[in-house]
Amino acid sequence: IACVAPGIAAWEAVVGGGASDALRWAMDRGILDEKALKLLRRFIEVGFKIGAFSTAIEIDKALGTDEENMPQRAVEARELITDLGPTFVKITQVWASRPDVLPDHGYIAPQHQGPGAVERMFDDMAIFDEPVAAASVGQVYKAKMNGREVAVKVQRPDVREQ
Question: pLDDT tens-digit profile of 27-64?
Fold first, then answer.
């Protein structure tokens, strides 16, 4: 029971007092086992974290401070996704490649900026000769952009058709 206490406390916060008694009763009778309770605890944890972040965004909208707070919310979103783990990182990567899912906040794809747009973005195009890593739907290159070292993930050709 000690290892699931945080899950019980979170459950009580949702449904009110007495939840720990109900969960202990269910565990004592074999209705819930440690694995099921661990899963329940994870659902509650994820729900609270995403709910708190979503609530902050909705409060920003209601107060008219959404544009002003967007840089801070972007940092919080990155920290939230990282904190939630690799599954959420992968889901976010898929969303990021879908402009119909995530809104466009001023990003203009290089192919829409005219000839030479990609060449103008990076200090040295030679870095794209050899990738430093392979990714699930692309390759990763190390580059310099405005004098700053960055990682550039380039989508493999024909990925959208697959």
Answer: 777 777 778 878 888 898 999 999 999 999 999 999 99
Q: Which CA distances in Å does 54 have to 43, 44, 59, 76?
A: 16, 15, 9, 11
* Paired tokens of 50: 């995403």
Number of residues written out for the chain: 162
CA dist 32 and 154 (Å) reads: 46
116 burial via Cβ count (<10 Å: 0-12, 13-18, 19+): exposed
Q: Which residues pair with 117 in a beta bridge?
A: none
Phi, psi of 22 (to 5 degrees): -65, -40
Question: CA 123 to CA 127: how far, in whole Å?
Answer: 9
Q: What pTM did the predictor assign? A: 0.52
Using CA atoms, how far apart are residues 92 and 111, in angstroms rounded to an integer? 23
The more confident residue out of 60 and 150 is 60
